[in-house]
Amino acid sequence: MSAKDKATDKTKNGAKPNATKAWSGRFSEPVDDLVKRFTASVGFDQRLAEFDIQGSVAHARMLHAVGILTAADLEAIEKGLAAISDEIRAGTFPWSIDLEDVHLNIERRLTDMVGDAGKRLHTGRSRNDQVATDVRLYLRAAIDHVQTLIKGLQRALLDLAEQHTDTVMPGFTHLQVAQPVSFAHHLLAYFEMLSRDAQRFADCRKRVNRLPLGAAALAGTSFPIDRQMVAKELGFDGVCENSLDAVSDRDFAIEFVAAGALLMTHLSRFSEELILWMSPRFGFIDIADRYCTGSSIMPQKKNPDVAELVRGKTGRVNGHLVALLTLMKGQPLAYNKDNQEDKEPLLDTVDTLMMSLAVFAGMVGGITVNVERMRAAAREGYATATDLADYLVKKGLPFREAHEAVAQAVRFAETRGCDLAELSLDDLRQFSKLITADAFDALTLEGSMNSRSHIGGTAPARVKAAIAKARKMLL
Ligand code: ARG
Fold first, then answer.
1. Percentage of the chain lying above the pLDDT 90 cut
2. What's the domain count of the chain?
3. 3-state helix, strand, coil in the chain (%, to 5)
4. Which of 24, 35, 73, 78 is the most buried (most CB within 10 A)?
């Protein structure tokens, strides 16, 4: 404790203990120094400052409108809060751990600046509904930012996909070559995942965008407040309908982190693929140098660190989700100090999502494709075997028999060390007399892709249409 802190917390000579505290009147000795540090949240919740000020301005305007604050008080409060906002942005605001959290820091500074008007601001309000309001305002802005970043990544995916509707790659199941798909088609799978992520955030936003203020500590307030006015002022769609619920539940934050965990999971899967594809074993893609790093010992190395870190950071967001669920599960109604622990996981989730999305969009823009390597890999794993089976079915063979005949043909081709398309017609006809020369059309990579032209299929014409539709969605 600094000498100054000791001076302000002295109990001697009838001076108030905890004199810096808003709640000091009730206490007979100063709070323990360790407890002060343990319970303070200003180190992290100061990031909510701009939203705390927005909430206070709206609250003060309402107090004036219903006749609780004079015009002069309101003016003083608005001016004071504007000056505080400037100080915070300039980095000159005197944050103090003695004042516990962002709310009490700002309130004290306001009182220092404008006197009694500052002391009247907290009428009909509690830090419990205040903090819930701040978190909701913060999260609403964060969601809007995340939505913009998701669109940015989706745009980068479409830009890359557009160049590769005819680029053939092996589609995998079990990481074994399965069937040929276009690289564009593969990328559009992630576009779809991200669209659902965006929908989840939009849906979550509806529940975030409700006003807790008016709930006060837990039971509401005896002042004739106008909650609708405050809601309108702050751009909320409505008010929280139950005061106990308003100050207590953080389900909206949990939902946000759950949506974030899913988004990160999608990015993590994509990362895993980029990492595999960039390894010399695959050699499908290269990632621009500016998105890679080197090794301090191995001069030849170029590592896909960005993708690896996104994959790694998914773990921390998943962890935050579990932390928040666990934080909530044992709490009786209404507010408990436990809820102060919601901030770090939430803030870190927002930071992680924003950084990951932004860096990922740039990285996708820096991908170059080795079209030949992809094509060669698609030719290696009998990727068109299903097409030959389908060909036989179209000639009247039941699918199970066709499957068996082609499986035999694949075994035969394996002994020859060649692809099905490289066998002679006579070789193929050993396995079914239904096979004629036109079978070779079905066995080409292009033939296979072109035949899948239904909605959701990999045919280049279909994928081009899907890209056009996706572009419209982003407008
Ligand atoms: N710093 C607190 C939090 O983040 C603000 C609310 C404190 N309320 C109280 N009654 N102690 O939750």
1. 90
2. 3
3. 65, 5, 30
4. 73
